Amino acid sequence: MNKNRIVIILISVVFLLLTITFIFSMKFKKPVLQISYIEFMEKVDNKQIKSVSISDSAQLKGEFKDGEQFITDNPRIDGFKESMLVKNIEVKESSDQYSPGQLALAIVAIGAFAGVAIYLSKNNSQQVSKEYDKMSNIEISTEKDSNIRFSNIAGNEEAKENIMELVDFIKNPQKYERYGARMPKGIILYGPPGTGKTLMAKALASEAGVDFLAVSGSDFVQIYAGLGAGRIRSLFKKAKEKGKCVIFIDEIDAIGKKRDRGGLGGSDESDRTLNALLTEMSGFKGSEGIVVIAATNRLDTLDEALLRPGRFDRQIEIGLPDLNARHEILKLYSKDRPIAVSLSLRGIAEQTVYFSGAKLENLMNEAAINAARENAEAITALHIDKAFYTVIAGDEKKDRSNIRNIDRRITAYHEAGHAVVTKLLCPENKVTKVTIIPSTKGAGGFSMNIPPDKMYNTKKEMINNIKIALAGRIVEELIFGADNVTTGASNDIQKATEILVAMIKQFGMSEEIGMINYDILFGHQGSADRKLAEITRNEMQRLYDETKLLIENNRELVYSIAENLLDKETLNEEEIDKCIENMWQKALN
Ligand SMILES: Nc1ncnc2c1ncn2[C@@H]1O[C@H](COP(=O)(O)OP(=O)(O)OP(=O)(O)O)[C@@H](O)[C@H]1O
Ligand SMILES: [Zn+2]
Q1: What is the mean pLDDT of each run of 10 residues along the chain (589 residues)?
Q2: Are 410 and 540 in the same domain?
Q3: Which residues contact 65 (CB under 8 A, 6 or more apart)?
Q4: Which one of the ligands is nearest to 474 CA?
């Protein structure tokens, strides 16, 4: 606060000077003689007046020839000046009654005050903007040469490959630019917590040998207007100073939530932050070797603007590890730990369904602590068992990690049903993956079924899609009994109904309804809808029965895929095809 003291001293000095000047000017001013206008006119006639100064004010000043000053009433008449001039009296014109000295003083005073005021305000705003800069300067954790490599990440092979491609891009961006290849500026990694998203981003930075700038989306959520946006700009400024680097934004959903267009409760501030991010992302060139990696647990909550080309146009799922991946992760974390020979890592992997990588690491660590406490020779199954309860005790949803075995079986058979019917009815569809590991969307499991790209759907294809959707429930019924079917098919039933209703109402694919648009004809009349419901129900039942027959005739295949799924948790297309091939072989023998 030294600056403030200087300012106070300055003001005091100016005041002191002003006061002294004023007192002196009062003290040494000759006394002014007040005379009447009559007296004045007499003196004029007697040629005793040297000069007068006239102004608009009520009084008029002048000087006698002997140098004495006087004042008198100002007659304010036209021709006064001339009447003086003809008497050889000097006439000064001034607009006010202040003396030049006083005027000068006033000017000095005003100048001094203005100077001080400007200095103060400038100083203040400098301070404010400095504070602001400090706040918008986000804390970034920078790491270079961290020892995390891709080999430190187990499982998630597809995602790993995808990200590994970027190493070369960061190293030699010019190479890609020469070919006009637009490399991604932004990548979103999405998936459940603790699955290694941060790990992936770190590995990319260290494999490419560049800086790793890490921030969290929640750092940008600020109460002060414009601060979040300021922080975004400072982040990118820092990145550009570094040259090539990997920017990691954890919890991107904190800034990139879907915007509430025209709705209530949309926050201008978060909009501003998101806009700043979008602007910065479009601002740098792909050839700079900067890659932004964002992580979120929920892709579906993000604003679409973030996912457009030139922004985060690559989205990579980082899922929970399946059996093999869990085994790999456990191997990784037992490498530098004394493990009892009797301990089966595969066995632990089998017992840790739905464990994330972070949880597996935690498990091994807790087991190591247990072993250390006992001064044991090595980590044994007992230490793991104890650790198991410590790890899942911290969970909000214990049942999810410790899912009942019967639920796993049901999921496996349900998904096998979808896969088998897809393979039988639509061999041209790619079944890229069947898994009983829940995806982030929360379903029990899922099968990825990608139909070939085309313009129209045929009636047959639509019917086949209904059958594929129904297959999950049908298998549940066939294997576990009609009374044991589960709620797991609700999405399937919705999808099947949507397709069938569209076929009947819009596409003229029902003989009973005919070639009409149902909605145009009937609107939403209750009686007509009852008829529609009946037709739909009957048709659905027919398709259900047909599919059931198909599955009954291929029971063995369903068993084979389901049991394989229970074993491995995830099957890729190759493994599914192998199951089918084995079935054919058996049938032929
Ligand atoms: N696939 C994996 N291989 C090896 N270790 C893993 C893996 N997944 C997670 N881990 C372990 O879990 C820890 C946490 O992982 P990380 O922070 O990368 O998860 P995340 O997906 O970013 O989680 P969050 O969504 O909570 O930020 C890692 O430091 C690592 O020890
Ligand atoms: Zn299903």
Answers
A1: 61 69 61 81 85 81 85 81 83 66 70 67 60 61 74 89 89 85 86 92 92 88 75 90 90 81 56 87 79 91 86 89 92 94 90 88 94 94 86 54 73 94 87 75 58 79 94 95 90 92 91 87 76 92 97 95 91 89 84
A2: yes
A3: 47, 48, 49, 50
A4: 2
ipTM of this predicted structure: 0.93
Q: Are residues 394 and 420 in the same domain?
A: no
pLDDT at 400: 44
CA–CA separation, 417 and 571 (whole Å): 14
- Cβ burial, residue 286 (10 Å; 0-12/13-18/19+): middle
Give me ligand 2 centre to Cα 443, in Å: 8
- Enter the tokens of residue 467: 């059958």
Residues 211 and 246: beta-carbon distance below 8 Å: yes
The last residue of one of the domains, among 101, 130, 163, is 101
Domain identity same for 472 and 579: yes
The encoded tokens of residue 450 equal 């990608």
Report how far residue 589's alpha carbon sits from residue 585's, in angstroms, rounded to the nearest whole number. 6
Other Cβ atoms less than 10 A from the Cβ of 543: the count is 18
Strand arrangement, sheet containing 245-250 = 141-143, 211-216, 245-250, 290-296, 186-190, 314-317
Are 187 and 292 contained in the same domain? yes
**Number of domains forming the structure of the chain:** 4
Residue 481 annotated as binding site: no
Is 452 a known ligand-binding residue? no
DSSP-assigned letter for residue 551: H
Q: What pTM was computed for the model?
A: 0.62
* Residue to substitute in 153, 190, 199, 202 for testing ligand 1 pocket (most ligand atoms within 8 angstroms of CB): 199
